[in-house]
């Protein structure tokens, strides 16, 4: 085993890199889910554009 593998600094940096990579991946997945939610919301909004406003008496609500 080399001296570098026995060093606590090596393992600390390795752990930090793994944590940063995992966090970056997780945030990327979150962004993709959020984008899908926004697209679905936009589709729902666009589908309502052609509808007449709901009327209560003489005034739309």
If you had to describe this structure to a student in words, what would you say it looks like?
By secondary structure, the chain is mainly alpha-helical. The mean pLDDT is 88. 74% of the residues lie in helices and 7% in strands. It is rod-shaped. The chain has a two-stranded antiparallel ribbon. A hairpin with a 2-residue loop joins strand 1 and strand 2.
Helix amount, in percent?
Answer: over 70%
Spatial strand order of the main sheet: 1-2
Shape: rod-shaped
Rg, rounded, reads 26 Å
Beta strands, count: 2
Span between N and C termini? Answer: 75 Å
The overall pLDDT, averaged over residues, is 88
**In percent terms, what proportion of residues is strand?**
5-15%
How would you summarize what this structure contains?
This protein is mainly α and 61 residues long.
Give keywords.
61 residues, two-stranded antiparallel ribbon, mainly alpha
Give the helices and strands, then pairings.
Blueprint: H1 3-6, H2 8-48, E1 55-56, E2 59-60
Antiparallel strand pairs: 1-2
